[in-house]
Specification:
71 residues; mainly alpha; 44% helix
């Protein structure tokens, strides 16, 4: 299957924490309950820099979202 190579692309979602501007926008969307579950799942599945997602890697990150929403 030499001709069946899958092209992969690293796509950074708009809601991210790469810099302060995107972090503020992301937290604003979480505060207004706009698509926060998908952001929460991406944060939970995140790993270190330049690493792909790993399912349920950071479950403790959900505490940040819970505390932020209640405050």
């Amino acid at each position: 299957m030499e001709g069946d190579k899958t092209a992969r692309e690293w796509v950074i979602p708009f809601n991210n924490f790469d810099n302060i501007v995107f972090s503020m926008i992301t937290f604003f969307e979480v505060a207004t309950f706009e698509a926060w579950p998908s952001t929460l799942l991406r944060v939970i599945d995140s790993q270190g820099e330049d690493m792909g997602p790993k399912k349920d890697n950071r479950l403790y990150a959900s505490i940040l979202f819970i505390v932020f929403i209640f405050i």
